[in-house]
Amino acid sequence: MTRLIRGWPLTIVLAAVFGLSVGPFYWLAMAATHANSEIFSYPPKFYPGDQLLENTRKLEESIGLLNVLGNTLFVAVVQTAGALVVSLLAGYAFAKFTFKGRDAFFVLLLSTLVIPGGVTIIPIFEMMNDIGLIDSFPALILPSLSVPFGIFLMRQSLLAVPDDLLDAARVDGAGELRVLVQVVVPVMRPVLAALAVFLFLGAWNDFLWPLIALRTPEMHTLPVALASLQATTRTDFGQVMVGTALSALPMMALFLILQKQFISGLLAGATKG
Amino acid sequence: MITRRNVPYVLILPALAGFLVFKAYPILAAAYISLTTGAGAARSFVGLDNYVRLVNDPLFWTSLWNTGLILVVQVPIMLLLALVLALGLNSPFVRLRATWRLGVFMPSLTGLVAYGVMFSVILSKESGLLNWMLGFLGVDPIDWLGSPFWARIAIVIALTWHYTGYNAVIYLAGLQSIPKELYEASMVDGAGSIRRFWSITVPQLRPILLLTIVLSTIGTLQLFDEPFVLTGGGPDNTTLTISLYLYQNGFRYFDFGYAAAIAYALTLIVAGFGLLQIKLTGGRK
Amino acid sequence: MINRRGALALLLLLPITACGGAQPEAQAGPVKITVWTWKPASAGLAAVARDFEKANPSIKVDVQAVGNPAIWEKITIGMAAGGKGLGDVLHIGVDYLPGYTEKFPGGLADLREFGADKHKDAFAKGLWPTVLGKDGGVYALPWEVNPAGVFYRQDLFEKAGVDPATVTTWDEAIEAGKKIKEATGAYLVGVNKPAAGGADMDFYQMLLQQQGAFYFNQQGEVTLGGDAAVRAMTLLKRMNDAGILADISGEGTFKQLVSNGKLAVLPWPAWAVSYIPEMRPEQKGLWRSMQPPAISSGGKRAAIVNSTYLSVSGNSPHRKEAYAFVEYALTRPEVINKIFKEGGVFPALSAAYTDPIFDRPDDYYGGQPALKTFTDSLAEGADATYYSSDYARALKIASDAQTQVLTKGADPAAALTQAAELLAQQTNRKLASG
Question: Which family does it belong to (chain B) (predicted)?
């Protein structure tokens, strides 16, 4: 009885919040199905039009959609995987070992969290040019492998793992690598999943650095390719809307897949620091 | 060979390498740039001139004030909303929780281009979605982007839309980790739901509240996307933030030395805030 | 200079470089030059690039649509990095060109090296000084020029009983605007009053340019507080007070006003001749073009609003080939007109205007030869403006002043005087006297 009485009003409130959150996306999805000249009509259009295929075809023609999605996916996956490994290793070292300069380095690392990204972009660009890496996927991926936030999160979570667990494995004769792979990774899976979502989000939406670092259109990532559609007043928003709507899909899928572990993962990182 | 003795150094090596090349070096390079003026072949060393100029620049102070104002208003509202939302999502009485959860998280997936187009459509005075909806409630069209007051509110609304769900999901994780036994014991003692919230939920959530406060504060002090795509810092600089001013000086005015000085000023402020917050909320590394 | 930074980076990144990130420029085979531009101009340029390659088999041209505004970030970072990583040929607007030449010496190639001087009389009047650096170098060739114009809704004017031919000054336009508002509910002109998402100063700048004025004079002194500036701002204020100046802030607002027939006049330059039919195909026959009304009776109606250029990167190893392409694309009437037909970029090359396309009646404009308005303007002696290397600051400050006047009711003279002082102080320039 209370379930019924208490559940419905709360569900309705949440549904309203859901509507406010998703409403703009719904508008975006509908806009993707209308011609450029019809998109900004008033009152707004909340029903689908018949231009989705046409917009998609034009988008494919202007940016090579599949290729661009492939590039973005490749860069985001490699970058996410790489940063996960780097964060795990460093977090593990910070949490479970004592070594010279540990605390000083940790503080330095954290303090870089606050430097605005725009400041470092020119020196990094010059450096990439000097070593001939510009216009390559490594140029996109390398600068984002050592992520202070990721290292911080891993360290905080690993602090909560009892040392006994690791020592037990060592007593059994496991080498350090095996301890890491067979003991630490399974325990950390939820946090790794959580971190994966954050890192992937960042990599997928990254704009300024890929714009600067890439020269060949065939290598463009989705945000860079979408920017190439912009032409002050003559932007074809039909294409932009399709591209934008498409770009949200992989992240939604990832969230759905990882959300169970994601939710318990965040908890491990944040509550036990 | 990896041994117990050298293992921490091996583990830290990739992070250290990345840090030195892509963080430490560029940051030091930017420090040098902040002491110069001009660019390329025309660059020259000017000592602390850029910092002196900063202190005397009314626009820098305006941007600092705007950023602080948005911070003070927006972060508490957003985090409070996120907490309430998380409590709702955590309630056992609610149906379709997974659906609401995805929906609430979706705004944080939005890239910059999509975000700009969506909100400039939503906030347009004559033909925006928001004024259209308010129209049904009998509210006269609000000049979201044109009035100094409403433009700031518009930034707050957009920010809140963007990140509330993100924080709510973090809180939800925290709520689910609170042992059920604590609540059961307290119910036996006859505590009401409000008292349970204050005596159990809040203290248990403390570490996670701290995490979100620190991250949101740093994020808001670096606020760039929203004013960049929505207001361009206007009208008349009422939504000009520090990061946006930095961008304008570097990328629009080609004044890289000054932009770097702004960055260092911002960094000092952010670091100061971080330390203060950690101190106030009871020291945690 | 192999410095410590390079050495360190090299050491750490060697494994990755070794497996094939870096590709040294191939020496054998044709030289490849890269052109950075944006849509839709890119389409026209790409078309003539193929012709150029046929005539010059040793050069390959890769035309890339980077997008506008993304292209400015890309060029600016390359310039700041000493010209590294830039495209060989760069499409640059008049608003950025002086900044790049003055603030990044050597960033753009001095084209005198390849004899670019000989084209100095080939382009629309007033354009050549805009390509010159302070050292007298030639840093670009003009590609596009946008003479000022206004497009008006013939049907709305008719309904309000206003004969467009009698609107020869902006004072008369304001009176006409009041009648149109009363009869049709349409605004005269739209401006993004709060400058949401960026400055919208094109209309104001046109009113300045018609008076031969701008934010700076030819000596680079600040004129933002001068008589011409105040006169133009006062016109805007009067339109605003009369309720005939629409606010077009917000992405969709402008398009809706146009599609609902709520804007009677678009004060747009030449590029819009091809854009309006694209934007509102169903309004065929309703629009006409004419020269903008003068500021004062008998005053000048023509002006050049803006222009864009092709430059060659100073750091490019293939400057000669890059210039060969620029010269091919921009100095031959048949080639530039092919670009015009494909990409809608109004040519800066004077010899181009003899093509029949510029006199041809246009069905969309009710049979009016809409382009002729603009070639007439140029013939009448429209002049180009000195944007200066501090244009971006001037634009921002002027835009703030315009916002103050239009949304807070500030006094034009007071707002502009203050703006001019701020601009002078920020840029270390002198205030022009008088």
Answer: Belongs to the binding-protein-dependent transport system permease family.
**Residue B229, SS3 per DSSP:** helix
Q: How many domains does chain B have?
A: 1
Range of the domain at B217: 58-280
Is the domain spanning C29-146+306-355 CATH 1.25.40.10? The answer is no
> What percentage of residues in chain C have a pLDDT greater than 90?
70
C13, C72, C403: residue with CB nearest B234:
C403
Q: Where are the domains of chain C?
A: 29-146+306-355, 150-304+362-427
Mutate to test the interface with C, among B49, B57, B145 (most CBs of C within 10 A): B145
Specify the range with the lowest mean pLDDT, choosing from A188-197, C363-372, C413-422. A188-197
Its pTM stands at 0.87
Contact A123 B17 (CB under 8 A): no
Tell whether B193 is covered by a domain: yes
Q: Does a structural domain hold residue B98? A: yes
Note the pLDDT of residue B39.
75
pLDDT 10s digits, B233-263: 878 889 999 989 998 998 889 888 999 999 8
Tokens of C274: 């091809």
Identify the CATH homologous superfamily for domain A55-271.
MetI-like (1.10.3720.10)
Q: Residue C400 and residue B234: Cβ atoms within 8 Å?
A: yes
Note whether residue B131 is domain-resident. Answer: yes
> Could you state, in order of their start, the residue ranges of all structural domains in chain A?
55-271
What CATH homologous superfamily does C150-304+362-427 map to? Periplasmic binding protein-like II (3.40.190.10)
The share of chain B scoring above pLDDT 90, in percent, equals 25
Among candidates A127, A133, A230 on the partner chain, residue whose Cβ is nearest the Cβ of C17 = A133
Whether B285 has a pLDDT exceeding 60, the answer reads no
pLDDT top residue among B119 and C430: C430
- Using CA atoms, how far residue A145 sits from A208, A223, C20, in Å, is 17, 20, 19
State whether residue C278 sits within 8 Å of chain A by CB: yes
Provide, as residue numbers in chain C, all residues whose Cβ is less than 8 Å from the Cβ of A41.
252, 256, 259
Q: Which residues of C touch A240 (CB under 8 A)?
A: none
Q: Taking CB atoms and an 8 Å cutoff, what residues of chain A touch C45?
A: none
User: Which of C17, C37, C77 is the best substitution to test chain A (most A C-beta atoms within 10 A)?
Assistant: C77
> A26 in contact with B at a CB cutoff of 8 Å?
no
CATH number at residue B207: 1.10.3720.10
Is A223's Cβ below 8 Å from some Cβ in B? yes
Residue C292 to residue C268: CA distance in whole angstroms? 9
Amino acid found at A11 = T
